[in-house]
Design a protein that fits this description.
The complex is a heteropentamer, with one copy of chain A, one copy of chain B, two copies of chain C and one copy of chain D. By secondary structure, chain A is mostly helical. Chain A contains eight helices and no strands. Chain A has helices at 10-47, 51-66, 69-84, 90-116, 119-127, 132-162, 174-184, 188-217. In chain A, helix 1 crosses helix 4, helix 3 (69-84) packs across helix 4 (90-116) and helix 5 (119-127) packs across helix 6 (132-162). The longest helix of chain A has 38 residues, at 10-47. In chain A, 50% of the residues are buried. Chain B is α/β, with parallel strands linked by helices. Chain B is built from eleven helices and 13 strands. In chain B, helix 2 (34-50) crosses helix 8 (212-228). The chains are: A mainly alpha, B alpha/beta, C alpha/beta, D mainly alpha. The interface between A and B is medium-sized, with 35 and 32 residues. The complex binds adenosine-5'-triphosphate (2 copies) and magnesium ion (2 copies).
Chain lengths: 221, 276, 244, 245, 244
């Protein structure tokens, strides 16, 4: 196999790759933060013990987890304009869909995290006069979050890779950048090889970074 | 309706493809190609007609799966990718007069000795998922009783790679796409386009249904471009001259079918071409 | 100070507490003992409404728990509680553990809370560890911090749920010492514990529970001095606990 | 918006609507095609799941052994396969590796995609298996060894039975994910549900109907897995322990 | 029976055991005590090679552990071990817990293993629970099953690592009773425990460890009878343990 990377000029990188990379990173960051916040709320609903909160939260999470993300993206993109009566841009649509979808996954992680905090901690919070919100916010969630950091990270790496599914609605992400460059120059093998390396470096770097961060914020036991 | 919406908002949303023969991106939000040039001319004509001093064009990349819903739901005002005008689609959307007639052909390796589709019995043929060529191939197989193995690339670059790497003996696809892939390949002399035309497809600008005023405005502009020879110039620019980003020449002369369509502007669907 | 009247509690159809009645006066030290699963932890948790109960009533300092108008968090802030497994907040430093509830619940300023917390920390003899995290302390030290944490809220009564049973035997002493000192200072205390030495030394009364019932509720001297007058179950329990 | 459900009864070449919706004698309706695509999706998923469970468990176990080299190998495996997007991995398996290792060309794309998807998922399963084993008290390993069981026997009889019980829920998610991720198989010419949706949508211009049908089938498949896993979870629940742990 | 010669062990750069030497004769009962973290568990785990060590040698029944030819699993099968947290296999019933290693390690038939296991279960008085799972038993019962499990392998020596410290005080007695009986029957035993009553009653020798070193290794009578002759650390430890 003769490989030809000569077309990979700085110009190509800046016009094809950088834009996609930025979008992927933005989308990942936004969906991660939004997803964790929303997911935590869903997890608290599911753990509340009140049927009128548990049932809708569980239904939402289970449905989202049973449908491929690309279908959710597409449905949201195609159907919401029909409901709203006006179109939503591909980007905005992607931000909203990813947040809603990832929330289902993050909620499962946060639920496990909350359950990993001993019940005695909740009792201790209450016993000191804290109310439900304070106990969750000051005692339980900080611990749940620290305990679950590695899993949250793994999910975020998946999320970063999944941003490529925005192809379905014509948004432009990192992988799309590589693919288009590959098609325009008709060098798919070379671009995919570079893509593999770039993704590996980013994702692996990310997991290293978080591993380091975790060592710093992990709970000393 | 679309014209008044354009006038009101001062913007028009153009549906574009990231990488098709007639419409592709150079990255950085730049979209170019034969159909895009045609559309830009159409839009500037419409701007003059509406008496606007400026009109912002928003580019909305579309895929073959979502382009029709996007035109239907109003996200896209004028779709300038490379969409085949056929009867099924006419139920959902409208088409402007045909701007280009695509011919489905076969690319093979130059040294393969294959010169006709009939030599492909028992061979492996590549084509791309989500294109009409797949169905064309199936029809052909059924009609002539030829049996060939099919492999489907996820996009044209993939399919071409199948041919290049020897996994497939032929690549059946729109002629313009074949020509472009060959022109930009590492060894353009190693491939050739052979054999009969498997199907003929009119390519047209796609518009929202039931908006005759807008369609008339677009049609008029295209007809004017044909008359003034501007369309032929645009064709020459994209099919016979070096094009970005690689400066390769596609080298696909104007076909008889396209000439005929220009001579007699119409929005007939693909099925009408097949009957002839 | 604490009035427990005919309290009963069920988990589903399983009755954990049956008709429990007792009261604790200001300055009194009461030890609760009994076999595992007899409902000691449950009883002590009902006192500051950590566990709801279905029948009867409890009042603390004259405030009824079953009154829907009672602000439970506010009441709990005035009742100190120490747990078997310490339940320090592992993600917070010792100082933060001591000040968190003072700031968030009592609304004290950070400085005020710190001053108060460090004073209590000094009292349990751990000032040097103020910047460590709970995980860096031994069990005995953690439990003493937990006591300091409860004390820094200026409680009117302290509840202890087996404060020494998760400790290495070597460390039991240091925690008991702090508790003895508290008792001598006149703190009202309700302690679930199996440390009979502690009960003998400082308690005024002993409550013995079995199967969710208060089986014995008598003075320390009656309990230890006259085992033959006790119920069969209590006598058996005492002999098992004291035998080895 | 109008629905056109008859489209599923249409013959795929002639475009005639067939009575009974199923084609006979070489005729194929879109419904026939849809069901066969579902079959491909399920076959790819099931086989990939087998591959993923096998390699994921193996690698996960290696990462908990006392041997440094095995741990390193396991870590490298996991990082390699989880940090490159699946679609890119598939491309490499299909287009790049065969040109480097000629024998790979002989493998049908079905086998390649099963392994590609299997290996990708094995990286995630290995994480879960490792976490499951490490969540057991250290004493369990000691207890097994102290009774004279060899290390493999300790894994087989003591650690793995509990570890797998603990990780049934995350494994369920992975099994559901594999169904969804199997859609990448279309990239290597497997006529599964996503390819069906792309192709049939293009041919019929009824994208919405096709997507709806495919979404429903994906949902049914994943949800069935979810129920089956729940059943397994209940079956293997150990008496006297909460939550099946 | 057991010979420990100049054993040293490091975790990275941290030395857990320093030059430990002692021996245990057939039929002897030796109690090991000392503060938390002093290396007691580590020492007892090196005896059946659950923890490797870097220097010195240990031999059990004449077989050297550091000899690369030694079949460690086979040796371990002949040494019974009981853990602080029981470590029964939670997914197996009591009977399965008792028979697993007999079948897989000793190669006994299922019937043989069952007969032997049930005999040991009877010995600890738990025959009625044979079909239950560990999670359905109390801590004391679980620990007795764990002892029966070790005994059913016909060990030549039994190692105990704080067998009662995770138990409710009420249940300590039932486990100690079983151990006392074993000692009286002449089993060779090495016990890490803080139960000084047990040590006084049945042990022949007491080993006191601190910071990874064997600080005292003397007869029971010397240890308890003459505290003033002991090292400062041991005396201090004894007073703490026995005070409450
Ligand atoms: N959340 C719960 N749901 C059901 N039953 C429970 C629950 N919590 C406790 N119980 C049961 O209530 C009974 C009393 O429990 P409690 O914890 O009060 O006992 P205890 O006397 O404190 O025992 P220990 O000495 O073991 O701490 C026990 O039988 C226990 O199994
Ligand atoms: N895996 C390990 N890695 C590093 N240090 C360890 C490890 N296991 C034990 N240690 C350290 O070795 C020392 C001795 O541990 P060991 O468990 O033998 O103490 P112990 O005397 O049994 O204490 P305890 O009474 O708490 O059980 C302790 O300081 C402990 O922190
Ligand atoms: Mg309790
Ligand atoms: Mg120990």
């Amino acid at each position: 196999m003769n490989l030809d990377f000569s077309f990979f000029t700085p110009d190509v990188v800046s016009s094809f790759i950088v834009k996609g990379l930025l979008f992927s990173l933005q989308l990942t960051l936004f969906a991660m933060i939004g997803g964790i916040v929303l997911g935590t709320l869903l997890a608290l609903m599911r753990l509340s013990g009140k049927p009128w909160l548990v049932t809708p939260a569980a239904a939402y999470v289970n449905t989202m987890r049973s449908v491929p993300l690309v279908m959710v993206i597409l449905w949201f993109f195609l159907l919401i304009p029909l409901l709203l009566g006006r179109p939503l841009g591909a980007e905005l649509s992607a931000f909203v869909t990813f947040t809603l979808f990832e929330a289902a996954y993050y909620s499962e992680i946060m639920r496990a995290g909350i359950q990993s905090v001993p019940k005695g901690q909740v009792y201790a919070g209450y016993a000191m006069g804290m109310n439900y919100r304070q106990t969750m916010q000051l005692v339980v969630l900080p611990q749940a979050f620290r305990n679950m950091l590695p899993v949250l990270l793994t999910q975020t790496i998946i999320l970063f890779q999944d941003t490529s599914l925005v192809y379905a609605i014509g948004a432009y992400d990192l992988l799309k950048g590589f693919e288009i460059a590959g098609k325009n120059f008709n060098r798919p093998v070379e671009t995919y090889l570079v893509a593999a390396v770039v993704y590996f470096v980013i994702c692996f770097g990310l997991s290293m970074l978080v591993r380091r961060m975790q060592a710093r914020i992990a709970i000393i036991r | 309706d679309t014209l008044s919406k354009i006038k009101e908002t001062g913007t028009v949303t153009m549906g574009v493809r990231e990488s098709s023969g007639l419409s592709y991106t150079l990255g950085d939000g730049k979209y170019v190609g034969y159909h895009i040039d045609v559309c830009q001319k159409v839009i500037s004509d419409i701007r003059k007609k509406l008496g606007l001093s400026s009109l912002t064009i928003k580019y909305q990349p579309v895929t073959s799966q979502n382009r029709i819903p996007l035109v239907q739901n109003g996200t896209v005002d004028i779709e300038c990718g490379s969409t085949t005008n056929n009867l099924a689609r006419q139920k959902d959307v409208a088409f402007a007069v045909t701007t280009y007639v695509e011919e489905v052909r076969t690319a093979v390796k130059a040294d393969s000795g294959i010169s006709s589709i009939s030599q492909l019995a028992g061979k492996t043929i590549a084509t791309t998922t989500g294109t009409t060529s797949v169905q064309t191939l199936r029809k052909h197989e059924r009609a002539n009783g030829i049996d060939f193995k099919e492999v489907f690339g996820k996009d044209h670059a993939d399919s071409f790679l199948l041919l290049e790497s020897g996994r497939a003996d032929a690549f059946v696809m729109d002629g313009s796409i074949l020509a472009k892939n060959i022109a930009t390949s590492k060894n353009p002399a190693g491939f050739k386009i052979v054999g009969e035309v498997l199907s003929v497809e009119p390519i047209a600008i796609m518009l929202r249904k039931d908006d005759p005023a807008f369609k008339a405005a677009v049609d008029d502009s295209i007809k004017a471009q044909i008359k003034s020879g501007e369309l032929a110039k645009t064709y020459d620019k994209w099919f016979l001259q070096p094009i970005p980003p690689t400066n390769a020449k596609i080298g696909l002369p104007l076909s008889g079918a396209t000439k005929a369509a220009w001579a007699n502007p119409n929005d007939k669907p693909m099925e009408d071409y097949a009957k002839r | 100070m604490i009035q427990i009247n005919n309290v009963s509690k069920w988990y589903g159809s399983f009755q954990v507490l049956t008709d429990c009645t007792t009261s604790i006066k200001k300055g009194e030290v009461v030890v609760v003992c009994g076999p595992s699963g007899s409902g000691k932890s449950t009883l002590i948790k009902t006192v500051n409404a950590l566990e709801p109960f279905q029948k009867g009533d409890i009042s603390v300092d004259g405030i009824s728990l079953s009154d829907p108008k009672t602000n439970l968090p506010k009441l709990r802030a005035r009742v100190g509680m120490v747990f078997q497994h310490f339940e320090l907040f592992p993600h917070l430093s010792v100082t933060e553990n001591l000040t968190l509830a003072q700031i968030k619940v009592l609304g004290r300023s950070v400085d005020e809370a710190k001053a108060r917390g460090l004073k209590m920390l000094e009292r349990v003899g751990l000032t040097v560890h103020k910047d460590k995290y709970p995980g860096q302390l031994s069990g005995g030290q953690q439990q003493r911090v937990a006591i300091a944490r409860a004390l820094s809220m200026d409680p009117i009564v302290m509840l202890f749920d087996e404060p020494t049973s998760a400790l290495d035997p070597e460390m039991v002493g240091e925690v008991l010492d702090v508790m003895v000192q508290l008792a001598h200072e006149g703190m009202t205390m309700m302690c679930v514990t199996h440390e009979m030495g502690f009960a003998k030394k400082v308690s005024h009364r002993v409550i013995f529970m079995d199967h969710g019932k208060i089986v014995e509720d008598c003075t320390k001297d009656d309990f230890f001095g006259d085992p033959d007058a006790r119920s069969v179950r209590a006598k058996d329990f005492l002999s098992k606990i004291l035998s080895h | 918006m109008t629905w056109d459900w008859q489209i599923f009864c249409t013959e795929t070449v002639t475009g005639e609507v067939l009575p009974g919706c199923f084609g006979r004698g070489g005729d194929i309706t879109y419904l026939d095609w849809l069901l066969s695509a579902w079959g491909w999706t399920l076959s790819v998923s099931a086989l990939a799941l087998v591959v993923a469970l096998f390699f994921g468990s193996l690698v996960g176990i290696l990462r908990t052994t006392p041997d440094r080299r095995l741990v390193f190998f396991g870590n490298a495996w996991t990082e390699l396969f989880r940090n490159i997007p699946l679609l890119v991995q598939i491309f490499l398996w299909y287009h790049v590796l065969p040109s480097l290792f000629k024998p790979l060309q002989a493998f049908p794309s079905f086998v390649l995609v099963v392994f590609a998807l299997g290996f990708f998922t094995s990286a995630r399963i290995s994480e879960q298996v490792r976490a499951g084993i490490q969540s057991l008290p250290r004493g369990q390993r000691y207890a097994g060894l102290a009774m004279g069981l060899t290390l493999p026997q300790t894994y087989r009889y003591v650690l793995l039975p509990m570890a797998f019980r603990i990780i049934v829920p995350p494994l369920t998610s992975e099994a559901m994910n594999i169904i969804k991720n199997s859609s990448v198989a279309f990239a290597v010419s497997i006529a599964e549900l996503t390819m069906f949706a792309l192709q049939a949508g293009e041919e019929t211009s009824r994208n919405i109907e096709m997507y709806l049908a495919v979404t429903v089938l994906y949902f049914i498949s994943a949800f069935t897995i979810n129920r089956v896993a729940q059943f397994i979870e209940n079956r293997v629940r150990v008496p006297g322990m909460i939550g099946g742990k």
